[in-house]
Amino acid sequence: MKRIQLLPFIFSFLALLHASCTQGSQGKRDTRQKESRQAITKDEILTGADQLGAYLPLLKGKKVGLMGNQTSVVGPDKKHLVDVLLENKIDLRFAFAPEHGFRGSIERGEKVSNEVDEKTGLPLYSLYGKNKKADSIVNSIDIMLFDLQDVGARFYTYIASMHQVMQLCANHGKKIIILDRPNPNGDQVDGPVRKDDKFKSNISFHKIAMIHGLTIGELAQMINDEGWLDKGKKCDLTVISLKNWDHKTPYSLPIIPSPSLPNDVSVRLYMSLCLFEATDVSVGRGTDWPFQVLGYPNPSFGKFTFTPGSKPGMSAHVEQQDKTCYGLDLRDTDPKSSTFTLKYVLDFYKLFKKAGIADQFFARPEFFNKLAGNDKLIQQIKAGMTEDEIKESWKPELEIYKKMRKKYLLYPDFE
Prior knowledge:
By secondary structure, the protein is of the alpha/beta class. 31% of the residues lie in helices and 14% in strands. The protein has helices at residues 13-20, 26-43, 52-59, 81-87, 134-139, 158-172, 216-225, 264-273, 343-354, 365-372, 376-382, 387-406, and strands at residues 63-68, 73-74, 79-80, 91-97, 115-116, 123-126, 143-147, 175-179, 190-193, 209-211, 236-240, 293-296, 304-306, 325-329. The strands form 4 sheets. A 7-stranded mixed sheet has the order 5-6-4-1-7-8-11, with helices on both faces. α6 (158-172) packs across α7. It is globular. 48% of the residues are buried.
């Protein structure tokens, strides 16, 4: 296997595609994603960070903090936002880092420590987990900038980090500017809505659909105006909106958002495959194809085989490491047509049941319930309900969420 090298800030999309594909079907996948990228370039999508004239004047003469990571880039040259701010003489005092760290190379769930940016000497602080100094840090500045690439799933922790920053700004009367970015899964709203705070965690922080269909800017408005900050507080919020993008427009991420989402296929399949994180089924962590393959060490599970090993950012928590897994090869999935589905989870549960090991499928049931946002889904799967039956059960709450979502859209919707 070829190893994916994470080169901070200059990791181009075509390099990511090359590293994630095998020789046998390389051409087909290359052509598909090149066509997608060409269409996107032609549309000239401008992220919030690309629009310097919209936010640099707001920062002049102010003490500024930033929450960002390797996805916080500006323009076609993918210059990091930190460098752009410093070049424009902005008084940048520090940066907060989310899960995976400031450079996006830290293993999922691992501790993100405070450090210093090697290139600029900028102090870096973690907001993944508890930081007792966070209040004093935010109180030392005038304005917070937030620029992270989300992927549109409730269980992706960057939106919990955004909530935390918004809360800090609300507590201390600081302005926050969200530099909006496209949601690569923004063309769908699906999954159960979390209602009970019993299941609240960093992977299920908000009372939104599992596939929420919002950009970070749209979600920030929802958090603020729905009174979800503690004690109903609101922060002084400004969103620098996207240009030339709507919820129907496909978007290929120019920089990978985390080590296990290296390309369009993984980003689209992540919606459906993340539930496997609460099982011992491998989603390809420790291979060149995370969230593009599925397998378990049982020959009856399929003819396709792979062996999870050790990869940068994917070494501490690798399901079935060094074991031959049998299952599905999903690498040729068309990103444009891929949408959220329970099919893979339901099919693998049936395989476990057929093998007489159904009781082993939900290896971490409490974690599964947090991912799902309820404890009903696990029971529905065990009861043998079909996907249509399960989706019908969450339809009423999903419709209520969709109506709420419409109030906060900044861009034309997909429906």
